[in-house]
Amino acid sequence: MFKWRNLPKGFLMGIVELVPGVSSGTMALLLGIYDQFLGAISRIVSKYYKQALAFLLPLVIGMAIAILTMSSVLNYFLQNHTIPTHWFFMGMVLGVIPMMIRISNVKAEFRIIHFILIFAGIAILFIMSMFNADALPASNAGMAAGDLLKYFITGALAASMMLLPGISGSLVMLIMGVYPIVIYAINEFTSLNFTVLPILISIGLGIVTGVLLASKVISHFLKNYTYLTYAAIIGLLFGSVFAIYPGLPASGTSWFLSVILFLSGLFISYIFGKQQNKNDTP
């Protein structure tokens, strides 16, 4: 029997996954279903697939509803208020870090190797941000074979990261320069513009592949190398700010909006993280 009580939980996971910051993995942790979520994904290709499907399908439907209904809002802000929107994303990302430091038990568990991993994560994303070209407008998204392969790989990486508490799949898409394109494509699809289907199919296939391949690997690392995994997540979160940073606002109004949205993002993520303290870590 399908667990339809998971439908609203999936909706919440879908909303936070749209915004680069709090991941659906974090939301699953806050909702108390993280272990079941990860376990069900790893069992979807086993003899227990029926039980896994009964748990996952309502979550997936809820996430799909959230993504289809909320993408137009995000598309509007990305197209018309790019810099303040990215400052909001930076606030969301940085606001997750106190939660990760808390559940990582840094003072008691971290050694030199953990801090090396943190600085490695920062360095990798800093270097990546230096080579990021200026993104083309989302409406000019390419659909050549090379573009579709990039969307597929991005989808696979994003799906792998969204399973971790701390890093959202949309953050990975933003770092890879694909996030505005995906939001635009979803928005166009809901407006019955089916020319964007190749983009969505490529991303979708990548997401399915990433989820199926990564769930067991992530489960293994979280169970056997928990604090090393957390250290890597913290480094990637800090480093992702370099990839998200859109530059300084150009006007007084833009400055005001950017600062307010940055602080709002910090506050929202911090509150999510504070609530997590009431639940057990995975």
From TrEMBL:
Question: Which keywords belong to this entry?
Answer: Membrane, Transmembrane, Transmembrane helix
Q: Which PANTHER family match?
A: INTEGRAL MEMBRANE PROTEIN, POLYPRENYL-PHOSPHATE TRANSPORTER
* Pfam families from the UniProt entry: VCA0040-like
Native source species: Jeotgalicoccus halotolerans
Membrane spanning stretches: 12-34, 55-78, 84-101, 113-131, 143-164, 196-215, 227-248, 254-273
Does the UniProt entry include the keyword Transmembrane?
A: yes
Q: What is this protein called?
A: Putative membrane protein
Q: Which domain of life is it from?
A: Bacteria
